[in-house]
Amino acid sequence: MTKRNLGVVASVAASALFFLAAAPALAQEDTTTAGPATEDAARPGSVYDGDWISLGIGVGYGPSYDGSDDYAAFPAPLIQGSVGGIGIKPRPAGIAFDLLPSAASGPDFSFGPSLRYRANRSSQIKDPVVKAAGELDAAFEVGAAAGISFPAVLNPYDSLSVSSDVRWDVAGAHGGMVVEPSVSYFTPLNRGVAASLSFSAEYASDDFNDYYYTVTPTQSLASGLPAYQADGGFNKVGTNLLLGFDLDGNLENGGFAAVLIGGYSRMLGEAKNTPYTSIRGSADQFFTAVGIGYTF
Question: Coiled-coil stretches, from where to where (predicted)?
């Protein structure tokens, strides 16, 4: 197997997580903890010789906002690749860029800007009580992504990746900071199937959690929920398992690939204790997705 052709399935597999994570920008907001290292697990696909682009589309099914027990289906597009030596990486409802050259062997470092549109509870709220509390403004977050990937951990084609994004809202919505660390392991299972297992988390500042998880007196009066003051801290942890399939059964020849994914995340701290979750939603968040893509 070549690194190039393994990357077709690896990048599409990573894409599926971001189909799922980005989709709540359409349905409501992402409920997974799919983090930056999930994409970095696809590192074999980022050491192509020359420019390359992966395009894909997926359909996911998950909670309509963070902490919700109402579920929705959603579509999302995907673009990933490398153009002029700059890596293009998918993010939940956003994108990141890797400005560092890929290593020919050994550990591979990545660093570059990270952007995200966050639409948590900004529209299409299904729960009438939560909706009565009022819709929130969408946030636009800008920051940086950094990581390291270790190839050939257990076999010549696998990789273990550790990465994190740090971003700040510049649109005047939550006005805070969010940190998303993640660890992922990617490996082929046979000539036509690859798998990725990831663990990730979300940590947010006081301003972030106050915006999304506090129930103000005004919101309490409008919704009937008890008032609640949220502070910063860890909001969730989760794990995702995905399987990528080369559609002609051969990872070595590129072309189309499909993916199946299942995941679970658990709300923590203020995100769990807020009435939006503890009374009207659920701390347990499940999701699934399917996707298909093509690498040029």
Answer: none
